Amino acid sequence: MFPNLGEDLRHYGDSWSQFKVLLLVPRVWAIVAYRFRSWAHTAPMPSILRLPLNVAGRLAAGFIEAVTHIELPSEAIIGPGLFLPHAGYVIVASNATIGRHCTLTQGVTIGHRAGGRELSFDSPVIGDRVYVGPGAAILGPVNVGDDVLIGANAVVIDSVSSRAVVVGNGNVAIDCARMLALAEHELQPTDTTQEATDAINAAGVREILMLGRRGPVQAAFTPPELKELGELAGADVIVDPVELQLDPASARALDEDRERARRNYELLQEFAAREPEGRPRRISLRFLVSPLAILGEDRVEAVEVVRNELVEEDGRIVARPTGETETIPAGLVLRSVGYKGVALPGIPFDERSCTIPNDRGRVDGAERTYAAGWIKRGPTGVIGTNKKDATETVEQLLEDARAGKLQRDDPTRSLETLLEERGANYVEYDGWQAIDAVERAAGEPLGRPRVKLTGWEQLLTTGRRS
Predict the structure, then answer these.
(1) Are residues 330 and 193 in the same domain?
(2) Residue finishing a domain among 272, 305, 335
(3) What is the extent of the structural domain holding 130?
(4) Same domain? 131 vs 201
(5) H-type helices in 26-155, by residue range?
(6) Minimal CB count within 10 Å: which of 25, 152, 302, 411?
(7) Residue 365 falls within a domain, yes or no?
(8) What is the 8-class DSSP label of residue 205?
């Protein structure tokens, strides 16, 4: 009883402060009553002594529940260091298990309840250092991992792991990791939909693990995006210095590179030298690992990975599995690798590069046909690269239009007629401007650039209204 209670009281400062809260703070009384009843229920003692202690504990607990609306039944298993920062309305089912140093705010329910009576369901098992936000409910036979943050008003009915795995080492992988790591105040002013923002806040992700198939020198992300990852307010970036040890081929490649790979490697060295600042989330970067399987019954529970080594083949550095495997517990896996262009019927295609052969966007051997983006040049670059790429293609298209090379086969048929004959749902430029105006107007009072319309019917109705 007393060691656990001592851990509970440490949240309140020195001995004098702890003594005062014991006398004056009802929510602390609820914790004391729980510790006393658990001790009286389980400690070895004669039955003649246990009975009056249990009766006294039950009477005290009933009074405290009436005053505080905090129900901590003695049958529940609650680890040391429990913290109740607010008064009132915390309900824990009798068969719930709560780990060490957890925080339950006001209005929290742990386990099924109905009409003040427990239902005959298995209750949650909650790990260590879990924070449960105001109004949240964790219901059913679910497991909540260590270091999970459950957002306000969340309803958790599936098991929650504190770790998400992002497979990939490119800019898309960095974008995924950054979105999962953004603090609530960082997400709020963005144009991320409210549903997505609420889901990210409620997901309880505390660690984002990025997995790269090859080494740090071969990573495809670009320095500006990697640098921004290290500037997040709510996440520490963790790189084990061992991950940055280079094989001879990678060391030579780094010596020959004067831009991207060298700057990436310098940034990774900076991250490895940092001391974690104890931010709410952490992003860990690992290299030379590939996923073999996603494990779990009805949901993701873990990822099995294999350790790789780098070898030179035909002048290229490639990853080869070593056979050494590892299982990483996780509740979410995002795949951010493996873009591959595919051929279109009747359009030239380069099978080796998986791109459409072209000259500045004009498709080789196909009149009035143009390409832009990754299918034009391969999966490289960022949004700015795509803008420049698209501008080049459009310049060629307009040049051909001015030269009269884009004349219609049937001048009497308009594009609109063709689209309608084919039953296509389309929005003209004026309609796009109407959608843009509606989204921006919805975002302005919220301090956001826009609130997106997320349904096809909404978009089509708004776009055609113009």
Answers:
(1) yes
(2) 335
(3) 2-156
(4) no
(5) 26-42, 47-68
(6) 411
(7) no
(8) -
Tell whether 63 and 47 lie within a shared domain: yes
CA dihedral for 175, 176, 178, 184, sign (positive or negative)? positive
CA distances from residue 32 to 38, 75, 107, 292, 368 in whole angstroms, order as listed:
10, 15, 20, 49, 79
Cα angle, residue 377 at apex, residues 373 and 383 outer, rounded to 5°:
40
CATH of residue 212: 3.50.50.60
Look at the alpha carbons of 73, 135, 103, 198 in this order and tell me if their dihedral is positive or negative. positive
Q: List phi, psi (to 5°) of 209.
A: -110, 115
Share of the chain above pLDDT 90, in %: 44
What is the DSSP secondary-structure string of 210-264?
Answer: EE-SS-GGG----HHHHHHHTT-TTEEEE--GGGG---HHHHHHHHH--SHHHHH
For residues 452 and 193, the answer to whether their CB atoms sit within 8 Å is: yes
Q: Are 287 and 215 in contact (CB under 8 A)?
A: yes
pLDDT tens column, 250-264: 888 888 876 889 999
- The phi, psi pair for 408, rounded to 5°, reads -70, 145
Query: pLDDT for 175-200, tens place per residue?
Result: 999 999 988 788 888 888 888 888 88
